[in-house]
Amino acid sequence: MFIDSHFHLSMIEKDFDKQKEVVVDSIEKGLSGGVNIYTSPKAFLENVEIARYLLEKGIKIACGWYPEYSPTEEMVEELENIIKENDIFAVGEIGLEYYRMHRPKKEQIELFDLQMELAKRYGKPVIIHSREAYSDTLEVLKNYPSVRGVMHCFSGTPEIAKKFLDINYYISFAGNLTFKNALDLHESIKYVPLDRILFETDAPFLAPVPFRGQKNYPFMVRYIYEFASNLLGIPLEELSHRVLQNWNEFIAG
Questions:
Q1: Which whole-number Å values give the CA distances from 129 to 68, 96, 141, 155, 185, in the listed order?
Q2: CA 23, CA 36: separation in Å to the nearest integer?
Q3: Does the N terminus or the C terminus of the chain have fewer Cβ atoms within 10 A?
Q4: What confidence tens digit (pLDDT) does each residue in 51-66 have?
Q5: Distance between CA 58 and CA 159 in Å, rounded?
Q6: Strands (E), the chain
Q7: d(CA 39, CA 33)
Q8: Pairing of strands 2-7, 170-173
Q9: Dihedral sign, CA of 241, 119, 66, 113?
Q10: What φ, ψ does residue 69 adopt, rounded to 5°?
Q11: Who contacts 120 (Cβ-Cβ below 8 Å, separation ≥6)?
């Protein structure tokens, strides 16, 4: 049984029935839990019905403003209302995106900080996006030692991983771990303690080998587990059990 700690069902399929088919198929193929991510309150509200269905299937829901929006008080109030009125497990994905730079750094950091405040206020974990922004991400997170979270789709070196492990964050590895040239990631997963590892698809993006370049689905997380099992020299059953323990500890708080 496999956990997919990060996927975007509404980006895989728009239609409710097709989203449901993806969930049923993934569960039949071994998915036992995970988090479905909405990158804005609007995206969540457009998919409330499927979100409720996911909760019935043991799938958690996260919602946050992705770092492509300019921060406003109204945005924060909108997200706060979503958190208060719905079964939202985590605030996310939130963070900093310096590769595409949808917004200036100052605006991204302000929006990130405001959402970290919300997570702290409501006792929610966070799911962190950080691309070419590890230093600034770490500086924000250090201001919220009581907030726990996951570094989503980690793509850094062991040295960078250590900085986030030092503040007790989980490290989640995605399909790019399976890429032949992802040498930094191969070294990073060897460095990260087994009790801090999670896996994710980030579906529909970053499909793992042998599906690279195709649309990604939550069931494909098993191929990331299998790659990691071989890389680490750990039986697949043992690795999946350890990650399930990590997941249960994370959701228990």
A1: 12, 6, 12, 11, 16
A2: 11
A3: C
A4: 999 999 999 999 999 9
A5: 34
A6: 2-7, 31-38, 59-63, 90-97, 126-131, 149-151, 170-173, 197-199
A7: 20
A8: unpaired
A9: negative
A10: -115, 150
A11: 144, 146, 147
C-alpha torsion sign, points 137, 108, 64, 123: positive
Q: Is 66 helix (H, G, I), strand (E, B) or coil?
A: coil
Measured CA distances, 134 to 6, 60, 69 (Å):
19, 26, 19
Query: Do 176 and 206 touch, CB atoms closer than 8 A?
Result: yes
Whole-Å CA distances, 9 to 102, 121, 183, 188: 23, 27, 29, 28
Position 253 scores a pLDDT of 83
pTM for this prediction: 0.96
Among candidate residues 38, 43, 119, 104, the one with its CA nearest the CA of residue 71:
104
Q: Which phi and psi (to 5°) does residue 173 adopt?
A: -105, 135
Write down the residue that tokens 């946050």 correspond to. Answer: 64
Amino acid at 243: V
